[in-house]
Amino acid sequence: MPKKLNGTVIVTYRCNARCTMCNRYKEPSRPEDEISLETIRKLPEMYFTNITGGEPFIREDLKDIVRELYKKSERIVISTNGFFTDRIIDLCREFPQIGIRISIEGLEETNNTIRGLEDGYNRGYTTLKKLREMGMTDVGFGMTVQDCNAQDLVPLYKLSDEMGMEFATASLHNSFYFVESKNIIHDRPMVAGHFEDLVNELLKSNSPKKWFRAYFNHGLINYIYSQKRLLPCDMSFDTFFIDPFGDVMPCNGTKNKEVMGNLNAQTWEELWNSPQAEAVRKKVRCCDRNCWMIGSVSPAMHKYIWNPGWWVVRHKFLNFFKEKKYSMYENRIVRDYRDGKVSKEELDRRSTCELDENGRTQA
Ligand code: SF4
């Protein structure tokens, strides 16, 4: 039996938000070009599927897409900004087992400024509360951390915890997918300090899932200091993305779009076993972008479980009696930066941010 894969389906590039760190809304897809049910039927068996955008709920046939995907996927999670409350509730009535992750970028004022969505925080928060009231269990927040919202990281985690919800984090990234190349964290120690607090909160909990989330956030500190990924990246081997045009890609982190084949024109077997797909896999093997996004890290954490597992044992159990179980200064690069052995400019150069002609960040 063929191995089940981890897939992300980008159903549209249209978006109603105007996030400061993502320009995708400036290059939307046209509704008539967007992935059809016919193409979705050609996807392989998956153990996990993420549906994302743009804003997926802009597509009025999203329920039909989900219905098709459930025929081939054990678990589905939709990433959304939570704005279209009625559409989300309506879909969840039919699929109460589905996961919903709503992007909230901070407490009210910060969120609305970053996302450029009037009343976005209240809309997102109301949607989350209504989903909870309906008895939905797989519901949570997602936050992309940057200089201007890092102070809201722990308060937002606590809010999600009180509501009994998942809390997913990311840092700023640059790629073709975000139509952005100038995102960068400026004050790394300040942002890392908030991540350190979050890691310690997660380690305090009694939930093994949260201990592994702590490891993921430790990896984000490593990422914002422009270091090599903590785990290998196996995107395109057992994980894929498909975009609204039917192009199958290894991930959403590359600088330029990398295409393994097109599912509108090919069968899955043709595409997945093609020389073009092999050429992309070769590129992935020497990719130096070092992304740390849940889409590429979660499969790696499962595959190389002993690595996060040992980290959890060390921090949760061997540090059992310590009030503070984790320090960001465990990371050598954080100490080196503090001690002046490495400069901000050097870390900026190692990042994926495109610098100006003077080698400076452009924000
Ligand atoms: S590190 Fe992995 S997820 Fe990031 S761009 Fe490279 S192949 Fe894609």
Structure, described:
Strands 6-5-4-3-2-1-7-8-9 form a nine-stranded mixed sheet, sandwiched between helices. It is of the alpha/beta class. The chain starts with a strand and ends in a 13-residue tail after the last helix. It has helices spanning 37-40, 62-70, 85-94, 108-115, 120-133, 153-162, 188-204, 208-224, 268-272, 275-285, 294-303, 306-318, 332-338, 344-350, and strands spanning 5-10, 46-52, 76-80, 99-103, 139-145, 166-171, 239-242, 247-249, 261-262. Helix content is 39%, strand content 12%. Helix 2 (62-70) links the parallel strand 2 and strand 3 (76-80). The chain binds iron/sulfur cluster. Iron/sulfur cluster is lined by residues 233, 235, 250-251, 253-254, 284, 287, 289-291, 296. Residues 233, 235, 250-251, 253-254, 284, 287, 289-291, 296 line the site of iron/sulfur cluster.
How far is the first residue's CA from the last residue's CA?
51 Å
- Oligomer state equals single chain
Please tell me what the overall shape is: globular
Number of strands: 9
Fraction of residues in helix: 25-40%
Largest sheet: 9 strands, mixed
H/E element sequence: EHEHEHEHHEHEHHEEEHHHHHH
The strands making up the biggest β-sheet line up spatially as 6-5-4-3-2-1-7-8-9
Radius of gyration: 20 Å
Strand content: 5-15%
Count of alpha/pi helices = 14
Q: What ranges have pLDDT less than 50 throughout 5 or more consecutive residues?
A: none
Class by SSE composition: alpha/beta
| pLDDT averaged residue by residue | 94
Distinct bound molecules: iron/sulfur cluster
